[in-house]
Amino acid sequence: MNSQNTCNNCHQEVQGDFCQHCGQREGIGKITFKETFQDFVDMVFSVNAPLMKTQKLLITNPGKLFREYLSGRRKTYYKPVSFFIIATVIYIVLRSLIQYDPMEGAVANGPKNFESSIFMKAGKYMVTNINNIMFLYVFTMALFLKTFFSRRNSFAEYVAIAFYLVGVYSIIGTIAMFYLKYVDPRYKMIPMLIFVIYMIYALTSYFKNRSFLTIVKLVFTYILSFAFYAGLGYALSFLIVWLKN
């Protein structure tokens, strides 16, 4: 058998550009930077790529995305954890490039010597390590969704939905960051206000229920999950900074 017509992954005969058995591209050899970059571009920017489909539905019909992903259409959409990670990484990279400091202004409004205090250091640590701290938000959101809407889904399913939602929050924060950096830094609440509106829109779409009671429960879900996330994240950051000192 000609090695050029044999899949390097499953060693089955290949007819065409892709293996009919495992789906791997034909002609795979040694890994190169070009191949790695091309795979990334194909995955992210292809019109048919799961990420593009996922992003589109998160805007136009998030309820459909949640229902279909939870019902078993896993290959059609970008996985929630992966979506959360890529959204968070983009936020961190861009924040570093434009040197945006979310804590800017806190010193001026705080007490004397606040900048050098352990409280300020804990806040800076939390912001710097937001990619790790944000995982807490996913689980606190899932916890309160399960609390207020216990009959709809399991906790694990709410965790999957929360990964999508918090990923969108990272995207909103990324866009708002440029406004806060270059236009007006006073409105730091903008990302949170936009996100609570989006969260209500997304979950009422998923539940197919826009009743007043559902919206009220979603508002409480947002408030409590964010409060618990911020409190736990800050407490953990404070503990780490305190132990380092």
What is the overall pLDDT average?
83
Structural class: mainly alpha
Report strand %.
under 5%
Assembly annotation:
single chain
- Give me the strand/helix succession: HHHHHHHHHH
Radius of gyration: 22 Å
Number of helices: 10
Straight-line N-to-C gap: 66 Å
Number of strands: 0
Any idea what the shape is? globular
* Main pleated sheet: none
Low-confidence parts lasting 5 or more residues at pLDDT below 50?
none
Percent range of helical residues: 55-70%
Number of domains: 2
In short, what is this structure?
It comes from Asprobacillus argus. The chain is mostly helical and 245 residues long. The protein contains 10 helices and no strands.
Description of the molecule:
This protein is mostly helical and 245 residues long. The chain has 2 domains: 1-47, no CATH class; 62-244, no CATH class. It has helices at residues 33-45, 50-60, 62-71, 80-98, 106-109, 118-128, 130-148, 155-182, 190-207, 212-244. It is globular, with a radius of gyration of 22 Å. The termini are far apart. The mean pLDDT is 83. Keywords: Membrane, Transmembrane, Transmembrane helix.
